[in-house]
Amino acid sequence: MSDNHDHGSNGTPMSRRRMMQLLGATGAATGLAGCGGQSAVETDTQGDGGSDGSDGSDGGDGGSGTPESTATPEGFESTSMASIQELAYVTNQTLPVLPVMEKLAQSFQATDDWSVPSADSEKMQVYWPTSWLPRTGDWTLKEGADDERLTLAQWAVPADSQYNVWNGTNDGEARRMIFDRFMRYNVATREYHPYVISDWEVGESTLTLSVREGQTWHDGEPVTGTDVANHIKLDLYNSAGGGGIGPYVLPEGDMNAVPDRVQATGEKTVEVTLEQAVNEDILLSLLAPTRLRAYDEVYGEYVTALDEAESDEERSSALGELTEFTDAEPIGNGPFQWEDADSQRTLVSKYEDHPDADNINFQEAEYLYKPQNSGRWSSLINGETDGSATLFMPQNQTRRLPDHMQTALVSRHWGMGIVFNHDREPVDDVRVRKAIANVVDREAAAGNSAAGTGSKVAVTYPSGLTGEFNGQIEGHWLDGVADEFDTYGRAEQRTERAAELLRDAGYEKQNGTWQKDGEPLELPIKGPAGFSDWVSGVQTIVSHLQDFGIESEPIMQDSATYWGGDYVEGDFKLALQGWASYDHTHPYFHFDWIYRSGDATDYWNVPTEYEAPILHEELRDSETIAPDGYISDLATPQE
């Protein structure tokens, strides 16, 4: 069982709710676990930004919970920054979830036959190292090396893999070399760089995209604006208007609007009509990870059928044909082209006409069938594979790595957290949630979860903000206001403060156990047994609660039972889940996930309003706040 959990909230064109339903129905024990990409569905593209279940409303009728003005408050660089800090403060003071740790993915690179950047290089933060670094000439074969090809690993049986991302099953790992992304993104600098999309312009009502010159499909045909428009359209049709850029493009999710609102306006240009003005950072975050697949020669017929559908039934039928199509021998546009696949490996060869072909000095890459972590560990240790983009490897295994295998850490802007069912006593009481936060030593939990690898970083300020690994929280998002935030004891157990909170909530300690009305305070924590690093983390948390006098135990279940049963049914008081929006850096996505996602509203039952102290009086004048309005405003352009 792998345990890298790349399911996140943004991992697939399929809705998060649908993914949970499928897991429950099929009993897929490994459905949500993945070391760098294994999951029940495609985890490599970002989809709904954690907004599953959100109606995109503006926060209600203009009451006290709605931002007062879009004018920039005095002393702030933008309204957006003030709103981010205010939302972070509300999260910190009310704890709708308890962020415990941020994940740093381990990434491995062999340096015996290969020249690669150093482990601490910024280039390692342009996420997915094994696919991006070769494209930019930063992963090259050394002169005189014995190796002939770059060897990596894949989860699914190669011969069973296919490359239609809208099919949703067995998307071949070689996609990373075969298809190019719209843009590159550096998680350390928060910068976007052109790739398939060479230029973009975001206006108040229009998004314009330009296709890179010289980009061709592997049959020699040029990549066109039509191909890019095709892909955007298919994503919109597949998301039913509720994910990706859908809320910003389609009026009230109207699928009939897709043909008019997404059009190729030239051989190399695409124009997308926006339903509302959108913060450029938000829009690019949703577009950048897209791997261009929708070659008109292959997918044009499906686009035409969907564009011309005259009823929901016709559209559903056309979408069914798309999702059933198996693309076993893909025509790609990346630096490597598909050659063949058998039961043990997928082979791809260098495509000499790719714009970046001159950066690559090896002719082949192969993906070996390695369906278990243990097999991947052995392959890195014995030199069978040349690296791994991400893979959780405990210290007892990393010690066995040869000297030439380096390990880098890549931020995922995500990590294990405790989520509360706000419809269940006693965690519907903020004083109880705060007591839990004060009891837990997050540094100890993160350290034990990381198993000596340094791949987990304890959250300093439980606030919904990510960037712990490089100082972005204090140095950027909370610049000047960090002292106003409660740490709840990052690396300590504040038991006296926790006791004060519980006594205030009506509890008293008798015979070493906290009780109320003669009943002990019981707080079991449910989670997925297959996530071994989470298991270690929650065991630490449970021990802290027990030592303090709270009755607690870890209830770790198989993936199908947990994700498809207790979790989606809200059958828990405390449960384990990622607390941030996977792989996104902008706080909008994290707050959207915490307060407005389908998970938050349907499984955690978070309230729509909170009572929280005011951080910025320039922004609000009431301690009653509805986060929805502030989150919606973050998605719009700010002064």
TrEMBL record:
Keywords: Signal, Transport. Belongs to the bacterial solute-binding protein 5 family. Residues 66-76 have a biased composition (Polar residues). The keyword Transmembrane helix does not apply. One of its GO terms (biological process) is peptide transport. Residues 192-599 form the Solute-binding protein family domain. It comes from Halosimplex pelagicum. The keyword Signal applies. Residues 22-32 have a biased composition (Low complexity). Residues 47-65 have a biased composition (Gly residues). One of its GO terms (molecular function) is peptide transmembrane transporter activity. Residues 1-76 are annotated as: Disordered. This is ABC transporter substrate-binding protein. InterPro entries: SBP_5, SBP_5_dom, TAT_signal. Pfam families: SBP_bac_5. Gene3D superfamilies: Dipeptide-binding Protein, Domain 3, Periplasmic binding protein-like II.
